[in-house]
Amino acid sequence: MGSWVRPVTGDEIREAFLRFFESKGHTVIPSSSLVPENDPTLLLTSAGMVQIKPYFLGLATPPSTRLASCQKCFRTSDIDSVGDSTHLTFFEMLGNFSVGDYFKKEAIAWAWEFVTEWIKMPYERLWVTVFQDDDEAAAIWQQTGVPGDRIVRLGEEDNFWGPAGDSGPCGPCSEILYDFGHESGCGRPECGPACDCGRFSEIWNLVFTQYDQDRRGNRRPLPRPNIDTGMGLERVAAVLQKKSSVYESDLFAPLVATVTDMTGKRYGEDALVDRAIRIVAEHSRAVTFLIADGVVPSNEGRGYVLRRVLRRASLFGRKLGLGGAFLGQLTDATVEKMGHVYPEIKSSREHIREVTTREEERFGEALDTGLSWLDRVIERARGEDRGWLRGEEVFMLYDTYGFPKELTAEIAAEHGLSLDLEGFDREMEQQRERARAAHKFGVGKETSVESYEQLAVSHTQFVGYEQ
E strands along 75-167, which residues? Predict the structure, then answer.
């Protein structure tokens, strides 16, 4: 390693990863858009493998059989979890890929070399998991130098990955986890890498892609086995910077500071305030990248995801005392922090601000009234000793005040209430039937009050590695 200096900042870790795999004969490719290209099975890009998928399936020729990237990712399943110290919707995934080139032996050896020699994570803090039947991977880890008692076998739920979407490449996987120590966990003697108490954090997932799964769940061997790995940059940065949360790392600290400056709140003194600050900071970053990649607010598909995230940020900003359209300041802060790596957010800066402001203003008109109405509905439910909100009440909030049902569920849960989602679905279907009937007789045609599509949108260009 010579005079190599351990990377610490997010930018340094990103560059170190790409340079390491370039030294192993990999071609570095730019991040693809959050909107998958020619892949109807996916709503949004959720892993680095998404743009590699055609190569794994033999549908396209890769620029090299060894590839590495830092990929923009968005996972809708984590929206409601954002607010704790670990979950994110948008994140950067570092990954190396083999398209029928190397397999388990090299993937494992290089992962261990990078983690222990390049970014110098302490051996004694690292654990490894393998798929329960993967004797080969377990043996290779031991040959690499991992003690047998630090290798844990887990089932398909934990150590079998994919496909990304309802079909595609998949296979058994092996994870490297960081142990924060007994004091950070549940304290139970049996606590281990399978425990979800927070003591163990997944650092890197190595997927040994061997199968192609169809939409019925049938798996057939791929023509050639492949390697697909993913390491969350934000998590690694938090570990190397000795932070207990991804929100305290240098990748997020400027955004958190912007929220505290705007609100006058202090971070780290009140759990509920901290949660709201994290939600506003994280969602504003996610919104920046979604809009830059061409997503516009709507009531379906990707647009609904964007609208849901925007409105959740708006609600929690209101809880922090922010009024009006405030997210533009935070999308600008995201551009300042990350525009040197992803120039598409810099070139789309005004477009991003215009879309967020328009959506905030549209929702803001109904937010206060809707919250007041929801407060009354919650009080009525509690007064009737009813543990849920009725479907028609949830629909009223959705249809009249623009509250996504997930947002209503989150607020209701704070009061120990659930939602009658079956009743909500019935109300939705009745609305669709009314709309179809109106359309049949030539009335009720929709007139768009937005013109997002007329605004210019740029394509993704990753330049962080070149700088």
Answer: 90-98, 126-131, 151-154, 160-161
Residues 413 and 303: their CA atoms lie apart, in Å, by 25
In this structure, of 96-100, 424-428, 436-440, the range with the lowest mean pLDDT score is 436-440
Pairing of strands 126-131, 151-154: parallel
Q: Is the per-residue pLDDT at 446 higher than 60?
A: no
Q: Name the residue type at position 381.
A: A
Using CA atoms, how far residue 107 sits from 30, 208, 226, in Å, is: 21, 9, 10
Confidence at residue 290, expressed as pLDDT on a 0 to 100 scale: 99
Fold of 10-240: BirA Bifunctional Protein; domain 2 (3.30.930)
Q: Provide the 3-class DSSP secondary structure of residue 399.
A: helix
**Whether 205 contacts 231, CB under 8 Å:** yes
DSSP string, 290-305: HHHTT----SSHHHHH
Q: Is the dihedral of CA 276, 296, 352, 368 positive or negative?
A: negative
| Environment class of 96 (CB within 10 Å of its CB; exposed 0-12, middle 13-18, buried 19+) | buried
The answer to whether 74 touches 466, Cβ cutoff 8 Å, is no
Separation CA 66–CA 25 (nearest Å): 7
- Taking only the tens place, the pLDDT of each residue in 284-298 is 999 999 999 999 999
135-144 and 104-113 helices cross at what angle (nearest 10)?
40
| Nearest residue to 306 (alpha-carbon basis) of 322, 319, 294 | 294
pTM attached to this predicted model: 0.85
In the chain, what are the domain boundaries?
10-240, 252-440
